[in-house]
Structures are given as C-alpha cells and as structure tokens.
Design goal:
This protein is 34% helix and 35% strand. Strand 4, helix 4 and strand 5 form a beta-alpha-beta unit. Helix 1 crosses helix 3. It has one domain: Aminopeptidase (3-Layer(aba) Sandwich), CATH 3.40.630. It has a seven-stranded mixed sheet, sandwiched between helices. By secondary structure, it is α+β, with helices and mostly antiparallel strands. The radius of gyration is 15 Å and the shape is globular.
C-alpha cells in the first residue's frame, strides 16, 4: 500500500540519498559521466541537500511502500530566479518529483501527484509550475496527463552541457 507522508527533520539524510540516487538513475544514461559527476559534485552534496528540508517555504514528501521509500517530491514557495513567464503571484514550484527506478510505472507518481496537488491547493496556491528536461518524454507525458501545459523554457546547466528545460504549469483546484 502506497502512502505519501510529509518528511520530518529526521528524514533529511534519506531525502539527500533519494535525491542523489534518483537524479543519477534518471539522467545518467542520457548524459556523459563527466557532466553527471560535475553536476552532482556542485549541486547535490549530501550536507547541502540535508539542509534544504529546514529552509522556509520548502515542503518535502516521501512516498512509502510499506517501510520502503519509493519516491519523493519537493514543493518550493518563492524560489530564487522565478521564471518570467510564470506568474509569481500565487504559484508554487514543483522543484523535484522522482520515483526510484524499480517503482516507476507502479502508481508511485500517481500517488505523489494526487497528494501534492491537494496539499498545494490547501495552502491556498492557485497555480503550480515545474521545469522538465525537454528530452525527458516520459516525464513530459506524465505531467501533460495531469493537466500541465508548456508555457516556455529556460536553460539548465548539467555539468558543462547547456540543456533546455520546458516550463510547465497548471491551475490548482
């Protein structure tokens, strides 16, 4: 039985591990080892990731299959560098949304998305937005299925490789 629970401060180390593992599993096959190593070393240090759970406006959730963590997500209020083509007024960013590799296609994403939409709406937000790599067709299709629409793009630097992320948004109920 899948359950999505708000992460607690004592989950900081688990969040850091999930972040590094799922990022690598999601993108290593389509990027060079050097670019992956650079990005992980610059942006996914365990100490920095563990601190994120304590930052104001950050909301982390972990998906559990029994006692096993199978995914996680991060919602972020008022992020730095808010994209110009996303109305800043009453929106929240879906900053991370990952399932572990062997759980993809088993309802983890559905459970997490349903939970986060209800949670963000309950906080009073009117819109949710995200950035997704333009070549990640599986993720793009998933987000489109949930009503997200492309509204623009922005650059994303993975190591030394300048990539493009689609900006997608949807209204909240």
């Amino acid at each position: 039985m899948l359950e999505v629970r708000k992460a607690l401060p004592e989950d900081a180390s688990l969040i850091a591990t999930l972040t590094r593992d799922t990022f690598y599993d999601s993108f290593a096959a389509d990027n060079t080892a050097e670019d992956m190593q650079i990005y992980i070393a610059e942006h996914l240090l365990p100490e920095a990731l563990e601190k994120e759970i304590f930052l104001p406006g950050n909301h982390f959730f972990i998906a559990w299959d029994g006692q096993r963590p199978v995914g996680y997500l991060r919602l972020r209020e008022r992020p730095e560098g808010h994209p110009e083509n996303i109305p800043a007024g009453n929106s929240i960013e879906l900053a991370r949304f990952y399932a572990i590799a062997d759980s993809i296609g088993k309802g983890v994403g559905k459970a997490m998305m349903g939970h986060l939409l209800e949670y963000a709406s309950g906080l009073g937000f009117e819109r949710i937005w995200l950035g997704v790599w333009e070549h990640n067709q599986r993720a793009i299709g998933f987000y489109q299925k949930w009503g997200f629409e492309k509204v623009g793009s922005h650059p994303f630097m993975l190591g030394r490789d300048l990539q493009t992320d689609w900006l997608m948004t949807r209204e909240l109920p």
